[in-house]
Amino acid sequence: MYSRIPCLIALAICLSFSKAHAQTDTSHYDLGRVKLDKKFTQSITLKGADLQRQPFANISDALNVWFYGTYTNSGSVIYVIDGNIVNDVNAYNINDIEEITLVQNAVAQASGAPSQQQMILIKTKRSKPGKSGIEATGQTNLINVRNMSNVKDINSPTNVYHQYYLSGYKNTDLVSTGISATYLRDVFPTLTTSKQANIKTPLGFNRFKFNGYADVKLGSNNSLSATATYVPQVTRFDYDNSNIYNDPNTASRAQTITAYHAKQNLLNGGIRLNSQLAKGLKNNLSASYSYYNYNEDYNYNYYSSDLHSSTDAYSLHRRNVLLLRDNLSYQKTIGDFSIEPAVDFSYRYTRDSTAKATNNETSSGTDPSFPSTSAERTYAKRKDYLLTPSLGISFKNSINLQGGFVTVLDSKKSLAIASNAELKRIFPFASASVNVSSLAGINIVGIKLYGSYSKQSILLQTDGEHLTGFSFDGPLQNSLNSGGYPNFTYDPLKSYNVYTAGADVNVSALLSVNYNYERGGLQIPILYYLPYGANGSQSFIGYVDSKYTRNRIGITFRVVDKTDAHFITGLNATNIKQRTNTITGNLATGDKVWTGGWVNRLDINRVFAGMDVLYQLGGGGFANPYSSIDPILGPSDHSFSLQNVYFGYKLQINRFKNFEVFANGRNIWQNKKSEITDNRRFYGLGFKLGL
To answer: How far is CA 267 from CA 292, 315, 325, 411, 594, in A?
Structure first.
């Protein structure tokens, strides 16, 4: 069966060129496997311009106040960039991004998002104004770290954050091209005491981003789009705290020297052919490739009067991902009804290889050294074949129904599972929406209701490799090798149902309310301690079923909405309740925790300002398996952070366009018991100009 796939792809290419610029579909959200009509999909959309005046290396640190508060973090989000789920959003500068959309629909799980994870769609900037242009932006911030300990003489050094961006584009009647380059320097200052020795190189990384695109019109019914991304990054940390253990009242002397060096390289490339084959009949054929390489060297040496120990460690990780996709859709209007069948086929090839080596050596006094070495290599590859037919039916602009199913075409052998194992190949999904106001002829208030359902398992989950910052974010390794899991309770093929319901209410042109509810399930790891022997215990990891419900409510108020003056403010709150059945009893987490953000944007003539507050209320268990917060203990108290603040002025200079200067800050204030940020504070200046 698979030998026919190249023939089908070749046929799609031939059909695409059978008529020789198809316009990009702006009426639908492309989730990577399924397209949803924007008019009938509950979502939250903001402009990339809303985030351009704040410092960050990971975009989730800027999005959390807009979406799910502390429940939106680098581990809980999956991104789809221009319909491509392979790329890493942090390979782009925020100035390269047009729109950011959180999809509040269960079909996101059918399209590859794991249970309880959020799917965020990224639309990059392509249609830029005029025939050509150059844009430059820059930010420089001083960084220090808040001291959360009870030791008063611990201080933070002041380090510097830099981000500089330069882009250019050229438009003709047939071709639009653009390139951009970014330099990003991010640092995590280390708290030190007056006795601590020199930190030669603070923990930080230098990241370069190079992006390019080209859009070509091929006649009246076809267009070809190509993108390329290359991101090299180097992380270093080098310190010598030879004085930290030295006690002048004793003969004790000690020295610790640590050196850490990591290199990362991310390469992405993609091409897409959009075609209008006939009236109402569209085809989108795309291919993308991603290569990720990670090299890490770590050296640790400890010296004292009678002991020397050293550790040298090396690790390597490489991942190659090839994704081929073809989406064929047809739209037909019959009276007040619109019918839209579609079929999507995707082939994904993933290859992973890792290597680790460690050398340890210890010597004490006159005793000889005791060296030990260890080495480990792993190699894995996986092929995924997915076919997704769907059908959408709409009545006027009032009612929409869409349903379909994802079909797994892989054989049991290719998935490395036993021939007698149960393999579910069909995963249905459905979505419904009703525009109550349009249906009932109500003009005073706008009311839209939403509902959706999907079934998913690990067979549908997919993600690309992501650049790491100061801690390893760890992509999901979609391996079905049961030998990688230490307990028989884990069922890698188990499927779960996801349900969502929601409502959008526009009280007026200035005030709107958004509510969304989600319910689903997943397997999470639990660490057990059980009695062992007469006086001891043993620990093991067990994977158990967990059910969750998520509620989010948001209010947006356009206080001023005039030609030369705009002021918008929004407040949102999210609660996730988790219920987990363990062998030691039922575990409930998240009941008392509410988190969200308060966002504000102001533009009056040439003056602009923004302020965002991130908060978390309540204590106890924290319901998010993708978070670094302890799911059992959870947050201990209320937390607030002035996450983002900026103000600036737009200058009018004949030689430049869009020239502005601003001052900004990040996390410049937190309450004493706040636990929701990395405790870094940023203070700086920035600019933006165009030619």
So the answer is: 6, 20, 19, 30, 39
The closest of 549, 460, 461, 450 to 498, measured between CA atoms, is 549
CB 304 within 8 A of CB 254: yes
In angstroms, the CA 665 to CA 239 distance is: 28
pTM: 0.88
**CB atoms near residue 379 (< 10 Å):** 10
Residues in the chain, overall count: 691
Divide the 691 residues of the chain into consecutive groups of 10 and give the mean pLDDT of each group.
47 43 69 94 94 93 94 89 85 94 94 89 89 94 85 81 96 94 94 68 92 93 94 90 53 69 93 93 94 90 76 90 95 94 94 90 70 86 92 94 94 77 89 94 92 91 71 32 39 87 93 96 71 58 82 95 92 92 76 93 95 90 66 74 95 87 94 86 95 87
Which is it for the CA torsion 155, 158, 159, 162, positive or negative?
positive
Q: In sequence order, which ranges of 17-89 are alpha helices (DSSP H)? A: 60-63
Alpha-carbon distances, residue 13 vs 2, 7, 464, 557 (angstroms): 18, 10, 26, 48
Helix, coil or strand: residue 2: helix
Sequence-distant (≥ 6) Cβ neighbours of residue 489 within 8 angstroms: 542, 543, 544
Decide: helix, strand or coil at residue 51: helix
Distances (CA, A) of 133 to 50, 167, 655, 689: 21, 8, 13, 11
CB neighbour list of residue 506: distance below 8 Å, 6 or more residues apart:
445, 446, 447, 512
Contact 312, 359 (CB under 8 A): yes
- Contact of 266 with 228, CB cutoff 8 Å: no
Residue 455 tokens, joined: 């079934």
Cα 616 from Cα 63, distance rounded (Å): 15
Report the Cα 325 to chain-centroid distance in Å. 22
Strand partners, 48: none
CA distance 674 to 190: 19
Query: What distance in Å separates the CA atoms of residue 375 and residue 314, rounded to the nearest whole number?
Result: 9
Q: Residues 684, 662: contact at Cβ < 8 Å?
A: no
Contacting residues for 477 by C-beta, under 8 A, at least 6 apart: 352
Burial grade of 269 (CB within 10 A; 0-12, 13-18, 19 or more): middle
